[in-house]
């Protein structure tokens, strides 16, 4: 009952904005390209008869009225921003599957009882501005508005400034309204569904996350005449922490994940002993107790390594959320949708964070996963298939109808 | 017999060009600031009655005629470019001590038998463009002109383009002429003279160097849903090499130096497993056999580490020169200069590379070191004293006279 080829075509059209030579997308949050992507989405929504509004965090809501428009809306959504080496589906799929649900309802001249909305959440990736999911977090009251608007990129530009610059600093209040239910469709971004040959993942939980920022300060000195024993090499310290982070991830495996993704070396010159290194750590686990144990080990390792080299260290946990359980009735709605459409499925825990994690704080929430090839995401070669894409959208439609007509 | 306060004032004047808040200098090779430094030097030399010429590598020569101007010149010199976090003396001291020798000869109305020149060598630091000492290398015939002009910075701009842009692509042939002797004064950049309380280092040797560029390629993937055992984390590989480089340096200590100074992480996003890392290695030792042993260990470690993580590796040695012995008669001229001026001294091996290393291939060469505070260089806090600066210049004057009047 959805038009899978229209959905696929929209995915391909959106993927041209910020397209990279390797077939991926680079559309960082609140850049000119992000604005282009938003503008295209807004145009499509208006063509589909929706009313579009933007809140002060730049979150976009496209509303299709219900029979009883005073009922709280059922919202579908995800994000349009990408990683620097992002794919065509991460986030975009959830947004455009939502739009396809609206277009399909239009095709059927079907009016839901409650209104239906498609949402685009600002800066979900957490790549240009940390942390991730910041604007759905403000919507859910997890962060306050000032915190959200003051998030800065590595050049010091804030989200507030950049929203204004691209014309998406809306005037609508962020959150503070009742949401009937929230459903997010997304590629799995991991290998499980594909390995097990399942088309749909019924997401029951999300693992918890802790993000850190660490700065080691030593002393810049000449790589030639400075004896090894007199050095305070900040990069040597950071390198040892990278290895320790990996050890911690392996130790609490197979479910733990531990990553250093970003590092900046100062002054970054071949014949200068690095005097300062800034780097980040990303820890994840579905069990909050284990996530806390990983945190403890990291703190001990950073202190030990800084001590052995003679570095000053600045250690900040900049983000934390505990593992999340989705609403049972929304999970059931997704499962019912799978049964009605007849796709193969399994229950699954999300390895990535999603706007749904924060929405679950203020609304009954569920998620639909579809497989991606080789489990690869945050990579330009990220790929899924039109069949999986259509299947996920069908399940989304059924889950939404289950709640919007309840 | 030299004017130490004039020399110090010139050092302070030059240090204003590219001055940093922490008291250092950032005047990278062939930038607009480098042009400003060169222009100031040229003006000072013309005011001192010298004739200035520039060769195709942008090397500048300021000539003071001798009584027999057909004799090969005695050249003093060093460089005006700096590290990103450079000091006020590294290079500049050797150039301006040379200028002060010329000014002192003018004050005394003294005409040397052979002509005397002050040289500024282009891109000695090897920071913006690798390797170091590239233009004195072309002068000495170690590199050919095309190699020199085609060295590119990390943005792909070449030395040839940048020389033309700042107006220092001269028309003089590079090298190919007889040099009577070459003397370079420099801060030690290490701790030995200061620790032993000596004012002058008579440089007898320079340690050899090997520079490498390594690229590890793994696979970008999502930091959340990608199990530890499926990862090909290029930064984990680079981190293990940083630790191995340090181990190799310690193992062949106390004279070995081993440094990773530069690293670029791709895509450098907090929640993306790094797919590609480019980094450099700088190895030094005064004994060529040990330098070769360090090279062998590095190659083995890089191969082992790439293998254990499943990374592709590209490994290039981009620079090598064997340890250098300076000319005995020039070393003796420096030593005689120390005796005449009565300063305390010791023989010393240079830990850094200098343009003198390449000049020694085509001319009898010697070097004069003065101490720097705490042995710190390639750092904005780099410092020496007016007394040491004057002493080094006195010794330089005597060494030059010893050869120019021989
Ligand atoms: N889905 C997704 O890629 N989210 C980014 C935030 C995270 O790293 O979990
Ligand atoms: N003197 C000096 O700092 N030279 C730079 C080249 C090197 O690293 O040895």
TrEMBL record, chains A, B:
Key words of the record: Hydrolase, Metal-binding, Plasmid, Zinc
Positions bound to Zn(2+) 2: 90, 125, 378
Protein name: N-carbamoyl-L-amino acid hydrolase
EC code: 3.5.1.87
Cofactors (names): Zn(2+)
Pfam families: M20_dimer, Peptidase_M20
GO molecular function: hydrolase activity, acting on carbon-nitrogen (but not peptide) bonds, in linear amidines; metal ion binding; N-carbamoyl-L-amino-acid hydrolase activity
Record keyword Metal-binding present: yes
Cofactor note: Binds 2 Zn(2+) ions per subunit.
Protein residues bound to Zn(2+) 1: 79, 90, 186
Ranges of residues in domain Peptidase M20 dimerisation: 208-306
Entry-linked Gene3D superfamilies: 3.30.70.360, Zn peptidases
Family the UniProt entry places it in: Belongs to the peptidase M20 family.
CDD domains: M20_bAS (cd03884)
Membrane-crossing residue ranges in chain numbering: none
